[in-house]
Design a protein that fits this description.
Layout (H helix, E strand, L loop, with lengths): L6 H14 L13 H10 L4 H17 L5 H7 L8 H7 L2 E6 L5 E6 L5 H4 L5 H27 L6 E6 L5 H21 L4 E7 L5 H8 L5 H4 L2 E3 L5 H7 L21 H4 L8 H9 L12 H4 L4 H21 L28 H7 L21
Parallel strand pairs: 2-3, 3-4, 4-5
Antiparallel strand pairs: 1-2
């Protein structure tokens, strides 16, 4: 639905209600910036009561998921580097890889490669589900903030491409429960983060499978879906540069020197990621995400990071109190509200120009970084 004319007033009421009910605090990893709050409002049609309940349920889930909470789970499992990652990619390929022409992160899924029977011979399905959860968290905690920093403007969602080449009814019955749970988690706890979904290589008879899956999705999500057979290449290339699209889907990217596109992690979210994660795990950064200005000015840790975070928070507080429009900072949904505060430096470069200046953001930066729902109704 179209946003109401008094969107700012509803946003302010939403924030005030969350503060009064002790549901939001500085530094919450759910994100405290305007764009995060607006995602919840949009997901509930700007109905204040429903948005508050959705936020409350989300915060409860984040504190209790898998018995440890999302913050601890994200420390235990690095979504870009965990021991079973090669196995998971072999049996359920899904990965972030570069950005589209609008600067939105690309998220590829190859359903034809799904083989849960093979997966669970070497890995429990419970452990696999934990990797799915941290992958969802990576989008809002790291991927979207980095894409926004690279683009110099808010990036509010991802472009999902689902490849059904080789996908049949046997794979569907294997994955349907996990897929349904994944859709539920995404819609309930990471709302409004999928900007567009393209299903390609849809086989004959897919309409039957789609009719089963469609009720799992909110009607707003269904409206973002486009389904193609084998004639999808031109449609994708209208939205994605050829050098960002894997060759398997009609592009020119191979990431040949990085183990292939599937395992390359390529994207601005990988800029100095090992340094950021290690500093975050040591407590030298409040957030693992790229802070405003870091893509151009280098990674900040320790006292420099604290000073930058405090400055950014102060700037955002001033913006909130004096502006007449919601913050249009970075579209971040990471740990601190400062992530969503725009850098004081001009950021008018296109995504392509950023990549030309920082080619490493299109390549993987690896490192051995891993360490070892209740729904409320009122």
């Amino acid at each position: 639905m179209a946003p109401p004319k008094d969107k700012e007033a509803i946003l302010n009421q939403f924030r005030e209600a969350l503060v009064q009910q002790d549901l939001i605090h500085d530094g919450d990893s759910i994100g405290t910036d305007d764009e995060t709050l607006l995602r919840f409002l949009r997901a509930r049609g700007y109905n204040l009561k429903h948005a508050i309940l959705m936020w409350k349920n989300c915060q409860h889930w984040r504190k209790t998921v898998e018995g440890v909470g999302i913050d601890e789970l994200y420390r235990q499992i690095d979504p870009f580097d965990y021991p079973e990652r090669d196995l998971v990619f072999d049996c359920w390929p899904l990965y972030f890889h570069k950005v589209d022409k609008k600067g939105r992160p690309l998220n590829f899924h190859h359903f034809g490669g799904i083989n849960l029977n093979k997966l669970q011979k070497s890995m429990t399905l419970e452990r696999f589900w934990q990797t799915v959860i941290v992958n969802c968290e990576a989008l809002t905690r790291e991927v979207l903030p980095a894409a926004a920093e690279a683009a110099g403007r808010p990036i509010l969602g991802t472009f999902v491409v689902v490849d059904l080449s080789g996908f049949g009814i046997s794979q569907f019955w294997q994955m349907k429960d996990f897929a349904r749970m994944s859709f539920q988690v995404s819609q309930d706890y990471f709302p409004e983060t999928m900007a567009q979904l393209a299903i390609v290589n849809a086989p004959r008879g897919f309409s039957t499978i789609w009719n089963v899956m469609k009720p799992w999705l909110a009607k707003e999500t269904v409206a973002k879906v486009s389904i193609y057979g084998s004639d999808y290449r031109s449609a994708l290339l209208e939205l994605i540069d050829a050098d960002a699209l894997p060759t398997s889907l009609g592009g020119t990217c191979t990431c040949a020197d990085r183990g292939g596109c599937m395992k390359s992690n390529a994207g601005p979210w990988m800029y100095e990621r090992r340094q950021r994660r290690e500093a975050w795990l040591r407590g030298e950064r409040e957030t693992i995400a790229l802070m405003p200005g870091e893509l151009h000015g280098g990674i900040r840790t320790g006292a420099k990071h604290e000073e930058a975070a405090e400055s950014a928070q102060a700037e955002q507080a001033a913006d909130v109190s004096s502006s007449t429009e919601p913050s249009q900072a970075s579209g971040s949904t990471s740990e601190t509200s400062s992530i969503a505060t725009p850098s004081s430096e001009p950021q008018e470069e296109s995504v392509r120009e950023v990549y030309e200046r920082h080619p490493e953001t299109r390549e993987v930066q690896t490192g051995d970084l891993h360490s070892e729902s209740t729904v409320l109704t009122r």
